[in-house]
Amino acid sequence: MPESREYPLLAVNRTSDGVVTVTLDDPDRRNAMTAPMTESWGRLMRDVAADSEARCLVVTGAGSAFCSGGDLGWIGAEPGAPVDRLRDKMLPFYRTWLSVRELSIPTVAAVNGAAVGAGACLALACDLRYAAGSAKFAVPFTRLGMHPGMAATWLLPEVAGIANARELLYTGRAVSGAEAVALGVYNRVFPDADFPQAVQRIAAEIAGTAPIAVKLTKEALVGAGHESFEAALRWEALAQPITMATEDLREGLAAQRDKRAPRFSGR
Questions:
Q1: pTM for the whole structure
Q2: How large is the angle between the packed helices 83-98 and 35-49, nearest 10 degrees?
Q3: Which of 123, 138, 157, 205 has an alpha carbon 20 to 30 Å from 181's alpha carbon atom?
Q4: What pLDDT is recorded for position 2?
Q5: Position 86 pLDDT exceeds 70
Q6: Which residues have a Cβ under 8 Å from the Cβ of 108 and sit 6 or more positions away?
Q7: Other residues' Cβ atoms within 10 Å of the Cβ of residue 246
Q8: Range from 16-20, 133-137, 168-172, 256-260 carrying the lowest mean pLDDT
């Protein structure tokens, strides 16, 4: 499918294997989360959620940045506004961007450049994060004089652990490369020249697995996973039999027997 401009400030492309790639496309603003981009993002998330053919979502940025975060002009536009009015403004913004967490398909942040503030939180909200070697990650809210937002105080501990989250949120320092992987921020880092192709390969690998099994596995791993060992056993004793009754299981077994790649249908 050719690139779509149905969503202003987003470039959306879908391949035949069900990988949907969305590029935040406002490089002159370093892909800041302006009001028009936020509106486009909300519509796109609703459309992807309703798309039965979508199997993996990849989020990346145009130009040199992944996302520089919220529009600072918008954030500082009402210095004297009461707290309740600002809260009513921020909550819909948070929820729109974080609706990516509600998708039933795997989501991948392809962090091609700087991911800062709310942009870093968008990356954290995805299931997996891969980065170019030069990409920076920072949550510098306190350096700007504000409390963290967009669920940073939930998302960063979930991904990197509470000790690492404290350091990154207290200091606001930027990390990249091997350090970001060691902290748990990124799954892997690739050399800049290899980065786009590496992410495409991973997304295609995800899209090539059995959709029902993957969606149920994602549900099992929401948040930090199950509340207890027993809860995990009970979930798996339900979810695994569901997949054992699918056409995809029969296809997977046949493909293994025939030593070929499976062709899963999601049925």
A1: 0.93
A2: 40
A3: 205
A4: 41
A5: yes
A6: 56, 57, 58, 59, 126, 127, 128, 129, 130, 199, 202, 203, 206
A7: 18
A8: 256-260
